[in-house]
Each structure stands twice: as structure tokens, then as C-alpha cells.
Amino acid sequence: MELLAVFLRVSALLLCWSAVVCSELPVPENVTIQTLNMNYVLKWDWDAAQAPDVARGVTFTAQYLAMFKKKLKKTKSKQDWKTLCESTPEHICDFSSVQLHYLGVWLLRLRAQSGHMVSPWVEKEFCPDRDAVIGPPSVVNVTPVKGLLQVAITDPLTFTNSSMKEHLPNMYYFIEYWKKSSSTQKPNNLTSSNNLVILPELESWTWYCVRVQSKDNYYKKTSAFSPIYCIQTDGQIPYWQIVLYFLLSLGLSFLVCLIFFMCSFRAVKVVKSTFFPSVPLPSHIQEYLFDSSTSDTPRLLSTEPEMEICSDRLDLLPSDPEVTEVPEIILEVHLSPETSQQSRRTHSRHSSCDSGVYSTEGSGPRQNELGEVREEKPGRKIRADEADEGVQDVSV
Fold this sequence. Notes:
Residues 1-23 form the signal peptide. The chain crosses the membrane at residues 239-263. The protein is α+β, with helices and mostly antiparallel strands. It folds into 3 domains: 21-131, Immunoglobulins (Immunoglobulin-like, Sandwich); 139-232, Immunoglobulins (Immunoglobulin-like, Sandwich); 305-351 and 366-396, no CATH class. It has helices at 2-22, 67-70, 128-131, 239-275, 283-289, 340-352, 366-370, and strands at 29-36, 39-45, 59-66, 82-88, 92-94, 106-114, 117-118, 122-126, 139-145, 148-154, 172-179, 188-192, 196-199, 207-216, 221-222, 229-232, 308-310, 329-334, 381-384.
């Protein structure tokens, strides 16, 4: 009996000593669960001043367990607890990936450890349906429709991008809207469980601002408001504006057509005046360009060399028997060096031909009729003294 008593005392001392050794580390402080829809994040604080010797080597372990299992006998086994964050130096542990059932009740526990020293467990009871916060609509689209505003609402999303209405079937939306220009006016509001809402009793061509929040009445959950969306309503266009727009478009079309016609007419006129001038060429130039003896094709250059004759003055006197003196006719002839020889032959040929006034038959030499004819170099003068009665026949 004495030996048994001694053994029990030693066992009690060992248990007390082990409990003291294991509880050397302080427990984490301010353990909270931050939630949004089905995102669950466990956070805590650690005061390094409570254990300065091991402050740098402290890690944390977080576990979870369904509440109903704790009430059963088999939950006394440590294997029922599932570890999520083990020996992490961070002060945060994300339980979103575990996908805890939204309507279940769970136990979350946390402890600190450093080597063989550990702190007691800190347990936290958590029910997502009761404790989790719902978020505002993920997307809100506001569009004008026939003088009103149509609000399209997208449900809050879970961690797997599914709708929160799958877990909160009674969730609805609270919509506030007001005139943008009126800051003191009390905003209008309405509630709807539909995802497509038409805001009634709005003024046409007026700016309105809209914001939406999610609500569930079972645990009185209310989300934050969504961002504010401002848009202008439309309306039916008055008939006078339609007529005015039609007249303006008609006038503008007429002005464009008129400008196009004037530019086209001006361009045609310029082309016509350039290629078909209204002032005709002189007749002697037209006769020169169109020689009927050869062809009707205009020619600008002659194939035979001709001499250029420039006359400053030419006086023709009528036939008068009383006139004894014949006025002097001065012709100025310019010959190019290349055509000098040809001009001599041409002059001899013309002198021997009939001039239309005298015939070469039965007449004397041309020199007796014309008097003296002298040919000079290019740029010099030719004098012709004619003895006939007021008739001159000058050949060059």
C-alpha cells in the first residue's frame, strides 16, 4: 500500500510538471473570424513580450471540427480534428478552401508552439449561416428604358463563384435612387428579390443615381451598399424636335449638293476654257494650220524652209496717168543663213511666173517692168522702182 501511494504521488508530480512545461507559452490573443459570403479567414494577435526568449521561433497551428462530433464519445480521439494551418509563422489562416457547410456549426481552435513548448488551445465556435456576413451585389448595371431606369443585379458570389441565393434563398435587394442634382432630397427606395428591377415614376431626361445592398431577414443580415451608379433617363422626342431635325438635315443635304454642283460646274468650265477657248484663232492662222492641199491635220511647222518677211509700211497707189513719180516701197527681208541660197532660187522662180497683172508672153524682160530690183543680205532693205501705172508687182 505504501508503494502504491508513493507511485501515485510521483505520477501526480509528473503530470503537474508536464502541464507546467506545456503551458509555458501564452495563448494567442484577439482570435477573430473575418467573413464575407463564404470566405472565412481566422486571424489572431501574438504578444512577443510575453515570451521574449522564444518570440522569433513561435509558430501556430489551426484545426477545425464539426460541433456534432464533439458530443459523441468518439470525438475524444485527437484524429477527429482536422489540421488546416500547421506550424505557420503567419497570424492568419484561410478556411475558405475547406468549404465549411453554410448551415453547419463548427469548432475552430488555435495554439502557439515553439519546440517542445506549446500553449493551450483557443476554441472558437463558428456558424456561417449565423455569423458570416453577406456582401453587396457583385455587379449592378443601370440602363435607361423608355423614360425609366432598368437595374440589372448580379447576386453576391461565393468562393467558387456560385450565387449566394443557393444558401440564402430568402435574400432580397434594397435599392436607393435619387436625383443627381438634388443633394438634400430624401432618396427613394424599393425592395425586390428579382434580379431585374424597373425604377418607377422618373422624369425624362434627368440624371439619377442608384445604389443597391443585399439583405436577409432571418439573422437580419445587411450588406454594404454597392458603388453609386449615375445615369440619365431618356424619353419620347417631341414632334417639333423631329420636324426641326428633319428640316436641318434637309437643308444640310441641299447645301452639300449645291456646293458639289458648283464645284463640278466650275471644274467643267475651266477644262472647257482651257481645251476649247471661246475666242477663235485668226483666219490666216487657221488657214496656215489647216492646209487643204495636203490634209486637214493641223501642222505647226512647215516642211519647206521659208524666209520671214517683215514690212514696216506698204502703200498701194491707184493707177493715175498724171502721177509721174512712183513712191518708194521699202521691204525689209530677214533671211536665215540656211535659206539664203533657197531664197534666191525661189525669187528667180517667182520673177519668171505670171503675177496675175502682166503676162510673160510678148513682154520684155522683168527688169524693164520692175525697174531695178536689188537683193541684199539678211536684215538689209530691197528697193523696187516700178514704172507701171500704179501697179506694183513685187516678188521676193
